Amino acid sequence: MTQSDQNKVSMRRAPDILFPLVLAALLLGAWEGAIHYWQVPHYVLPAPSAIAHALCANFGSLMESLGSTLAVTLQAFAASTILGVATAIAFTQSRLIERTLYPYAVILQVTPVVAIAPLILIWVGFERINLALVIVATIVAFFPILAGATLGLKSADFNLLDLARLHGASRLQILWRIRLPTALPYLLSGMKTAGGLALIGAVVAEFVAGSGTATGLAWRIVESGNRLEIATLFAALALLAFTGVMIFAALSLLEWTLLRRWHESALGEAT
Amino acid sequence: MTLLSLSAVAKRFSNGTQALRDLSFTVAPGEFVSLLGPSGCGKSTALRLAANLLAPDSGAITFPTGKPEIGFVFQEPTLMPWADALANARLPLDLQNAPRGQATDRAASALARVGLAGFERALPRELSGGMRMRVSLARALVARPKLLLLDEPFAALDEITRAQLGDDLLRLWREDGLTILFVTHSVSESAFLSQRVLVMTPRPGTITADIALDTDLARTRDGRLSPATIEAQRAISAALNGAGALV
Ligand SMILES: Nc1ncnc2c1ncn2[C@@H]1O[C@H](COP(=O)(O)OP(=O)(O)OP(=O)(O)O)[C@@H](O)[C@H]1O
Ligand SMILES: [Mg+2]
Q1: CATH architecture of B4-68+146-242
Q2: What's the pLDDT tens digit per position in A192-207?
Q3: What span, in angstroms and rounded, lies between the C-alpha atoms of B189 and B233?
Q4: Do the strands B179-184 and B18-27 form a parallel or antiparallel pair, or are they unpaired?
Q5: CATH number of this structure's domain A47-270, picked from the four choices 3.40.50.1820, 3.90.1180.10, 1.10.3720.10, 3.10.620.30
Q6: H/E element, B243
Q7: Using one digit for the tens of pLDDT, what is the confidence trace for B103-159?
Q8: Which of B95, B121, B137 best tests the A interface by mutation, with the highest count of A CBs <10 A?
């Protein structure tokens, strides 16, 4: 891509960023105005300026909470990616394994995680609360990885697989040279979903664990609510949303970097 | 001498489709043989049986002079979209764990032989349909096969590209002393390219005619339009007609 092409792309992309920002400014301005006009009490709905103030006033502790939630999220994301890919590989290597394990993967997926989180917390123990949180969030994020990777590994071109067999390829060679590269776009798409789910799972797990043990953003939300510090609650909420967006953006960037040279999905974005 | 021999081969797929029945033919070393028949008569199945990618229900597929190295070309280029032309052409050697430098050299020279020197770094999506097919041909040649199996390799290409690739295939066949089994449903292509045309019946497929062609006459400068080629086309069409393919 030449420099001028790149400029053209960013010119065309500009509205994607600019328009939502303009809308945000308008909404925030209207919000701020409405709060002052109708004299809404701050413990019902704080003004954006009050939220910003709360964010600055509690910046250190909020960042600590964010760090804690983010750590759980990233560990769960990594664990679900590794487990999901490993399980998908096992599925494609053996129909028996797939038939045996698949129902359990589905059960894990359809059972509401809020319902099993208390059990996991008890089993793992409150003295290892972090591990318990990671396990809960991993369960939430696991399925889209498994589904994406399984579909991808099975999408390999039959003729290409025949060709590999003709030249005496081992299963490992076929996996490494053909199945895994074929699966990459599907896996990355699953990872984009899983990134957001890992964050949701971490927050749900913190809620279930309750105050006193967990120190993440969910706990700050509960605590601020109890103290009627609604501005701080909103600040924590905004941080959570921001984190979710950043995770999605990072994974989209990873996807684009890995696929832009050859895969249709990424090519479409560049042209 | 016989390189490849199929005798009384039958194949029924698990869904009950009887693709082939009593299929017998031989291919001599160095021969260029076309396998011609209507769509769905089992040509691809026969080729996959010859490559040992499928097992027959009955009958035998043998290589009396020992199992040769086989190159296979599909109807579609069947390339790895994430890999450049060089890596695609190198795949058979990579799978055989050949030393990397040597494999790269051989893949590059295979690409050069099919007219793709300078396109080593190009990804499949950056190549035209004809060039992709050439990469596929280079990949089939890179392991220095004795037997080349081609399954309607030029069917998806335009007339001009198809003629060029046909000429190139003839050149490679001569230079390497290859044995070629060429599946096609084009009467004119088989008449121009091959020394022998095996005509198949509709499914379940079996050989209905084995037509030997005088290739020296056909491959003159205006070979595709030479009287000998036209005459060969007439004979092949008649055999197809007799087989009930052109009704
Ligand atoms: N894996 C399979 N399972 C079931 N039926 C199959 C399978 N492969 C091929 N067939 C059937 O066997 C018959 C022969 O198929 P084959 O692909 O060998 O035909 P072909 O002569 O190559 O046709 P074409 O010229 O259209 O490529 C067809 O009726 C096809 O539907
Ligand atoms: Mg076919």
Answers
A1: 3-Layer(aba) Sandwich (3.40)
A2: 999 999 999 999 999 8
A3: 9
A4: unpaired
A5: 1.10.3720.10
A6: none
A7: 999 999 999 999 999 999 999 999 999 999 999 999 999 999 999 999 999 988 888
A8: B95
Instruction: Give me ligand 2 centre to Cα B96, in Å.
Output: 27
Within chain B, which residues score under 70 in pLDDT?
A: 216-223, 243-247
User: What is the layout of strands, in order, in the sheet containing B58-62?
Assistant: B18-27, B4-12, B58-62
**Spatial distance between the Cα atoms of B212 and A213, rounded to a whole number of angstroms:** 87
Output the CA torsion A118→A119→A124→A127 (10° steps): 30
Task: Give the Cα separation of B39 and B43 in Å (integer).
Answer: 8
Q: What is the ipTM of this complex?
A: 0.90
The amino acid at A14: A
Q: Are B95 and A164 in contact (CB under 8 A)?
A: yes
From chain A, pick out residues whose CB is under 8 angstroms from the CB of B100. none
- Which residue among B13, B200, B207 has the greatest number of ligand 1 atoms within 8 angstroms of its CB, and so is best to mutate? B13
Interface membership of B91 toward A (CB under 8 Å): yes
Q: Which of A65, A67, A40, A42 has its CA nearest to residue A53?
A: A42
- Sketch the domain layout of chain A as residue ranges: 1-38, 47-270
One digit per residue, the tens of pLDDT, for chain A of length 271 reads 445 555 555 556 777 888 889 999 999 999 999 999 999 988 889 999 999 999 999 999 999 999 999 999 999 999 999 999 999 999 999 999 999 998 998 898 888 888 889 999 899 988 888 999 999 999 999 999 999 999 999 999 999 999 999 999 999 999 999 999 999 999 999 999 999 999 999 999 998 887 566 689 998 998 899 898 999 999 999 999 999 999 999 999 999 999 988 887 766 544 3
Task: Locate A202 and state its tokens.
Answer: 């971490």
Q: What is the residue extent of each domain of chain B?
A: 4-68+146-242, 80-144
Residues of chain B with Cβ-Cβ distance to A265 below 8 Å are none
Q: Which residues share a beta bridge with A4?
A: none
Interchain proximity B125–A159, CB inside 8 Å: no
Report the amino acid identity of residue B106: R
